[in-house]
Write a structure and sequence with these properties.
The complex is a heterodimer of chains A (about 550) and B (about 400). Chain A has helices at about 1-20, 20-35, 75-85, 90-95, 110-120, 140-145, 155-160, 165, 205-225, 260-265, 270, 280-295, 335-340, 345-365, 395-400, 410-420, 455-470, 535-540, 540-555; strands spanning about 35-40, 45, 55-65, 100-110, 125-135, 170-175, 190, 200, 225-235, 240-245, 310-315, 320, 425, 430-435, 440-445, 450, 485-495, 500-515, 520-525. Chain A is α+β, with helices and mostly antiparallel strands and about 550 residues long. In chain A, helix 3 (about 75-85) crosses helix 4, helix 9 (about 205-225) runs antiparallel to helix 19 (about 540-555) and helix 12 packs across helix 17 (about 455-470). Classes of the chains: A alpha+beta (about 550), B mainly alpha (about 400).
Chain lengths: ~550, ~400
């Protein structure tokens, strides 16, 4: 009979829905039955290598209103506006409209405010712990540390790169609620403990960072450049000891409303921007020649080879000329070491053309140009290296003294480290260790060298030549009595819209000491200084100042 | 001329009805308690209303149970006209109560009356008398024109409210009664075809019906929109499992399941009492249907047969359509679970109607005891073995099934 058949169909269907499909349906139903209030995990600290706290948390709270649970709208609006300075009428409207079930009234409220709030015991008002990031040193290391978003997640810099360690896992309080979020009476909320974030220990030394930033401040005051940047690396392990881009901004007052200014100030130009290096790149050409000479390549110039004293070279129909006029006995009868001293362009053109692009490019690749260094920072640029197959004689002649090639400062610094430390290329790093908040090590970031770029002998010879550049050549402004400092200056015209722009320069200086066993290598770049013309006058003194500061701070004894 | 109602009828009919209605009050309380408390400050708001409905329903049932159903004869065309007027009153601006854009209620001041609930039974009464007055009417096409036209009028008025679900129920009951009255199969098909053809037209006419149809085919496509109601119903049933989460412990009733106290009350019952509870409840409802069918079959006259059949069919159609909707077996449509769902007009009218069925069961027993009493000339269009011992009055040979018997 029809009734029996229908009865069986309904019973079968009931059985299917209520018993067979029960688990999956119930799972989905449970999701909608609860509302969670996040309990922010405490964000990890950021510490300098010498144990200074660079980023920490102030105890703070977030205050919410559940519109449906509010009983006395006027009282709630009035109290909250008095305690937290929110607009009373606006809040009242929002609560009455009930268009959102939850309104965030205040983030980063203080403990005192919350204590006051809890005295009122208002229906529908909740608070939970929040993260309020504080940076005890204000603008120190700002372009590297970065900042967090209002809800406490890393938004830029190391705060973002190491967010997964710093952030921890948020806990939650689960409330049983109805569809619109009103809590059910007589049900106890379930509390799930969060996991606090881990502390991140940097390779950066707070003292060296302070020294570096104050040295950069001076050059900013004197030459008003667009930007002055410096990175200090330990060539023995690639650890970044200081990294600074000035002008800076206070991390405790991030200019979030002015995106353009914020983008400019928070930019870690040392890592994310490329520039034409100019003469500092000559160390690559010199190194190539020394290594090839040691390996008895007949195309290499011997170390006592005397270069032509002419100011010009004719290459592929074009004229390459030296920055110096070569008048009054300047740049005459130079060996390789002299050429480095004088930073004489044609000599390096001679070397590159003699070695040929295949041999020369071997060194560009060995020193990792054209590729990211892999430093633990986001947005690293690769620079621009012409592909070997496309390089003409004219290009090669210019690359030899640092034109027709773009590098990032961190690339050049990492390459320079390998060039003077015995030939070991290290990936630069900013973080050395991940710890729990009570100091237990979770992870140590080891930094074994990734490759041997050149022979130790060649490196040693180059380092001694560069020491001579500082003691008697173009790097004299970085000379420090009693210490073996090596270095190389650089001045490059800026490219803008594909053309060399007149009068706009990037002045740079790469220095290191002690030159026979380098512990500190510093690359300074000054973007568009007003007044100074050469890296030797603008950037070298900054490096000198930084090294003097380090010698003072670390009580490094004189060599003699 | 009328015999006295000396013997008791089938007492299981009123007992089952009262049991279901009382269980309905509990279910309505459970399903609506939370919303009632937060909206009206009284968790018993809907339960009390429903209880009042059940009380009135019991009174109405006592009356109809004791009012000889044969006394309706001669009055049913007025009942039909009354029903149509009630339906028409829904469209009067000062009387009509509009909810969710539908004009289904008349405001009587102390009570809002859902016209279609009354009108559908009026139509059943009318049909029952129409066919029992002259049983040959069902066999000619001319004879079924009046039942069709009057039925279509009721349907049109209800669909204009709009209320597609009740329209479909009335339509189904009309077809069932035409069939049971002994309509010729080819005529029946002739009537059935345009009815079936009308369904897609009705669906296309109102865009929301098309959306509901697609939501039924894949509710997960739009779980917050069209698919919401069905998914919430399934969540509730699914959470019930074999034995349920316990009476009053539904979580879906916390506003998650809309219409939890009315059209989707079965979902809450399923959540709280599980498969076991819903299966038992269904068993009881089918038991009541069986009792209604039995009463019809053993009734002493064709009017009683048609009336009991019509009322029982109306109940059965609503029960099954509701269950199939709630379990997601057919596209969702708003139809209360009779005798259980909140809704005063529905509970009163259904209880009164089952009182009539009980009254029919009384008369039939009396009649079958005293075979000399043959109050009506009736013709029974069903198998010989099933009918009461009244075949001597039949003009046909009484052989074959209910279709061939009349050809």
């Amino acid at each position: 009979m029809a009734v029996t058949l229908l009865f069986l169909i309904v019973i079968a269907r009931l059985f299917y829905v209520e018993v067979i499909a029960s688990d999956s349906l119930q799972q989905k139903a449970i999701d909608q039955w609860t509302r969670e209030l996040p309990v922010k995990a405490k964000r990890g600290k950021i510490l300098s290598a010498d144990g200074k706290v660079l980023a920490a948390n102030a105890p703070s709270y977030a205050v919410f209103v559940r519109t449906r649970s509010v009983k006395n709208v006027d009282l709630v609006a009035e109290t909250l506006s008095r305690l937290f300075g929110v607009d009373e009428e606006d809040l009242k409207q929002k609560i009455n409209k009930k268009s959102t079930s939850e309104i965030t009234v205040k983030r980063q409220a203080t403990r005192t405010d919350i204590l006051k709030l809890s005295e009122y015991d208002l229906d529908g008002v909740y608070y939970s712990t929040d993260n309020f990031r504080v940076y005890p040193y204000g603008d120190l290391l700002c372009s590297v540390l970065g900042y967090t978003s209002v809800d406490g997640r890393g938004q830029s810099g190391l705060e973002k790169v190491y967010d997964k360690y710093l952030g921890g896992i948020d806990g939650e309080i689960l409330y049983e609620a109805d569809l619109v979020g009103t809590d059910l009476k007589g049900k106890t909320p379930t509390y799930t403990q969060g996991v606090d974030g881990l502390d991140v220990v940097l390779t950066v030394d707070s003292e060296i960072q302070l020294i570096t930033e104050s040295a950069l401040k001076k050059v900013i005051d004197e030459y008003s450049p667009k930007r002055a940047s410096a990175v200090v690396i330990n060539p023995q392990n690639g650890k970044v000891l200081a990294m600074a881009n000035l002008p800076s901004y206070d991390l405790n007052a991030v200019p979030r409303d002015d995106i353009q200014t914020l983008n400019k100030l928070s930019r870690n130009a040392l890592v994310v921007d490329s520039y034409e290096p100019g003469s500092t790149f000559k160390i690559v050409t010199a190194l190539a020649d020394i290594e090839e000479f040691l390996q008895k390549n007949p195309k290499a110039k011997s170390l006592d080879y005397v270069f032509s004293s002419s100011r010009y070279r004719l290459v592929a129909g074009g004229k390459i000329k030296c920055w110096s006029t070569h008048a009054n006995g300047k740049h005459q009868n130079q060996t390789l070491s002299d050429a480095l001293n004088n930073s004489c362009n044609p000599c390096f053109t001679d070397i590159a053309l003699s070695l040929g692009k295949e041999t020369y490019y071997k060194y560009i690749k060995n020193l990792n140009f054209g590729k990211v260094t892999g430093i633990d920072f986001s947005g690293e640029a690769t620079g621009m290296v012409l592909p070997e197959s496309a390089v003409t004689e004219g290009d090669l002649a210019r690359i030899a003294f640092g034109q027709s090639i773009a590098v990032t400062p961190i690339q050049l610094a990492a390459a320079a480290c390998a060039a003077v430390n015995g030939g070991y290329y290290y990936k630069p790093t900013l973080v050395s260790e991940i710890k729990t908040s009570d100091g237990k090590t979770v992870e140590i970031i080891n930094n074994a060298y990734s490759k041997k770029a050149v022979s130790s002998e060649a490196s040693k010879i180059l380092a001694s030549y560069l020491e001579r550049v500082v003691s008697e050549g173009s790097g004299k402004q970085c000379y420090i009595e009693g210490y073996k400092v090596g270095g190389k200056t650089g001045t490059a015209q800026k490219f803008e819209d594909g053309k060399l722009s007149q009068g706009k320069y990037v002045m740079s200086f790469m220095g290191f000491f002690p030159s026979d066993n380098p512990r500190y290598l510093c690359l300074v770049t000054v973007d568009e200084p007003v007044g100074g013309t050469y890296g030797s006058t603008v950037a070298a003194p900054v490096a000198g100042e930084i090294f003097k500061g380090i010698i003072n701070a670390k009580s490094i004894e004189k060599f003699e | 001329m009328m015999n006295k109602l000396r013997l008791k009828g089938d007492i299981f009919i009123p007992l089952t009805v009262i049991f279901l209605a009382c269980f309905g009050i509990v279910a309505v309380y459970s399903a609506s308690g939370y919303v009632a408390e937060s909206d009206y400050g009284n968790p018993f708001y809907y339960a009390i209303k429903q209880g009042a409905g059940v009380a009135v329903g019991i009174l109405a049932m006592i009356f109809t149970a004791n009012y000889d159903y044969r006394n309706y004869l001669g009055k049913t065309k007025w009942m039909y006209i009354f029903g149509v007027i009630l339906l028409a009153l829904c469209f009067l601006p000062f009387l009509s109560v509009e909810v969710y854009g539908a004009k289904r209620w008349i405001n009587l001041g102390f009570f809002t009356l859902q016209s279609s609930e009354v009108a559908k039974f009026c139509y059943i009464f009318f049909l029952a008398e129409y066919f029992s007055a002259d049983t040959s009417r069902a066999r000619s096409f001319k004879g079924v024109i009046i039942p069709l036209l009057t039925g279509i009028l009721v349907c049109v008025l209800i669909i204009l409210e709009p209320n597609m679900s009740i329209t479909v129920c009335v339509g189904l009951v009309m077809l069932a009664m035409l069939f049971l009255a002994g309509m010729k199969i080819k005529h029946f098909v002739l009537v059935l075809l345009p009815c079936v053809a009308l369904i897609p037209v009705l669906i296309i006419l109102e865009p929301y019906r098309l959306k509901r149809l697609s939501a039924f085919l894949n509710p997960w496509e739009n779980p917050k929109g069209e698919g919401y109601q069905l998914l919430q119903s399934l969540y509730g049933l699914g959470s019930g499992g074999l034995f349920g989460v316990g009476l009053f412990n539904s979580r879906q009733k916390y506003r998650f399941l809309p219409f939890s106290e009315s059209d989707f009350i079965l979902s809450v019952i399923g959540e709280e009492t599980g498969f076991f509870g819903t299966a038992v409840l269904f068993g009881i409802m089918v038991f009541l249907i069986m009792k209604g069918v039995r009463t019809a079959i053993s009734s002493s006259d064709f009017f009683g047969y048609m009336l009991s059949m019509g009322i029982t069919t109306m109940y059965a159609v609503q029960v099954f359509v509701n269950a199939l909707v709630v379990t997601g077996s057919i596209p969702p449509t708003g139809l209360p679970l009779p005798l259980i769902s909140a809704g005063n007009t529905s509970i009163i009218v259904f209880m009164a109607a089952f009182g009539v069925v009980y009254n029919i069961s009384k008369v039939s027993k009396t009649a079958s005891l005293d075979r000399s009493l043959k109050p009506f000339k009736v013709k029974f269009p069903f198998k010989k073995g099933q009918k009461p011992d009244l075949t001597s009055d039949l003009t046909s040979d009484g052989n074959g099934n209910n279709n061939s018997a009349l050809t």
